[in-house]
Write a structure and sequence with these properties.
alpha/beta; Rossmann fold; 9 strands; 38% helix; binds adenosine-5'-triphosphate
Length: 253
């Protein structure tokens, strides 16, 4: 598989603050699903902002499709931040149309595309509803569709299911696994949920805490298509134990 994103020795600190992370290197291949896990505050969201091109001061190299120019990344990467940030005064349809509006492509064709996609996202009948009328899972699907509409091969999803109850989260996993198979996009995904990371990912990167140490990589290697029931299987359980062990080690360094 072709390399889509490459980070080389990436470091970042906020002005007059200690390092958030240092010397991080990784590559993500086209079409991969990669998760980032790590202790709270270790810099996962900051890493995503740097990759999206929002932190110009980051040191090191971030190359997308071989190009290391930051301005090339802005607008080429679809970034879904931790809060869904749906605009409360816009309908679901208009929220999801926003990225096309910004690009001047929200005409009749654009609205028809989004309308059609809303059905695939389980939001048929809610096109003209406002965000406060949706359940948590529906809001996340709407925010996800809006992110998708920004285009770009790489999607950065920052803990999209963190606030959902266990059952809704399972539904979202089933839905995302199916959708990801169809879309063929490359996804980077932040989560605190180890089972979620294993179920969805090809590889998992574990960020060090306290800004020291390298990224650790775990190859998931479970067959695809994945099924929710896999989390009872031995291979899955051993991966979970291994991940927990490594997470514990990085936290006690
Ligand atoms: N705008 C900012 N200015 C200064 N420090 C910041 C800013 N944003 C985040 N930080 C600090 O940078 C560190 C990393 O924050 P970040 O949100 O990236 O962590 P995280 O791993 O995503 O955390 P969580 O898992 O809790 O979401 C934290 O110590 C945080 O307090």
């Amino acid at each position: 598989m072709e390399e889509l994103l490459s980070l080389r020795r990436l470091s970042f600190s906020f002005p007059q603050q200690k390092l958030v992370f240092s010397d991080l290197s990784l590559t993500v291949r086209q079409g991969e699903f990669v998760s980032i896990i790590g202790a709270s505050g270790c810099g996962k969201s900051t890493l995503f902002k740097a990759i999206a091109g929002l932190l110009a001061e980051a040191q090191g190299e971030i190359a997308l499709q071989g190009s290391a120019r930051g301005e090339n990344r802005l607008g080429q990467i679809a970034y879904m931040p931790q809060q869904d940030l749906l605009l409360p005064w816009r309908t679901v349809l208009d929220n999801c149309l926003l990225p096309l509006e910004i690009k001047g492509r929200a005409g009749k064709g654009g609205a028809a595309t989004v309308w059609e996609m809303l059905e695939r996202f389980g939001l048929a009948g809610y096109e003209l509803a406002y965000p406060h009328e949706l359940s948590g899972g529906m809001r996340q699907r709407a925010a996800f569709l809006r992110t998708l509409m920004t285009g770009g091969e790489l999607m950065l999803l920052d803990e999209p299911f963190g606030a959902l109850d266990a059952m809704t989260k399972r539904d979202m996993h089933r839905w995302l696994l199916e959708l990801w198979g169809e879309l063929g996009r490359t996804v980077m995904f932040i989560t605190h949920d180890l089972e979620e990371a294993i179920l969805l990912s090809d590889r998992i990167f574990l960020m060090p805490s306290g800004s020291v140490g390298p990224l650790q990589e775990l190859n998931v290697g479970l067959p695809r298509p994945r099924r929710l029931e896999m989390n009872y299987e031995l291979g899955f359980v051993s991966l979970r134990a291994e991940l927990e062990r490594r997470l514990y080690e990085t936290r006690t360094v």
